[in-house]
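Contributing new records

If you add data, match the layout below exactly. Sequence lines come first and carry their own label; structure lines follow with theirs. Keep one chain per record. Anything else will be rejected by the validation script.
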Amino acid sequence: MTTTEVGGLLRAWRQRRRLSQLELSSRAEVSGRHLSFVETGRSRPSPDMILRLAEHLDVPLRERDALLLAGGYAPRFASSAAPDGAVLASFRALLDAHMPYPAVLLDRYWDLVDANPGVAPFLAGCAAHLLEPPVNVVRLSLHPEGLAPRIVGAAAWRAQLLQQVAARADRTADPRLFALLEECRGYAIADGDAPAPPSGPVLELVVRADDGAPLRLFTVASEVLTPNDVTVDELHLETFLPADDETRRRLAEAGT
């Protein structure tokens, strides 16, 4: 790794965030001349300088470690293949507390880490290959052999999900997320491919049950804010709540 490499990476993140050198230097309280020297490799940034710039560039924790490594420094943030047992137990308690309503714990790629039994009614009829671990809930929701045929207003739901994937791919510059976005954009949906973005801050998800009756829900996504753990930082909890009394009754009966 070289000074030029970390400088080039920082420049790429700045350009991705659509910031000029002047804007970034002002936000990070760094002289424009020094920032220019860092980006061109004429000056070697300290680890604290790398992290200060990364903070103002909203670089995810995993990529901050990559910047440190490119600068010749040790990573600062803990990382593991999976969250430890204590962390998963804490999330399991949240998932269980949300019963009888569905709730899922997802990683950076929308791969399923854990779920409560409330999700079971929504998996009925989905192709077996989509339910093999790791289950990707974006793929499962939009694939024609997944949940998509049972979603009422699938175009709006699809537009909202793809918007989220595109935003995270742009924020992280992760090739796997760009690949997921490209894959899911290629899926056809029952009610046409014209984008129909949500008209309000909350998008209702309407899924037809086995008997054809609609289950109306809205979803809330909660991120985990931790300053020093890459693996936990990339988790988020998605909880679904009934949008009407009939859905509340049906989900309560299914959970008993």
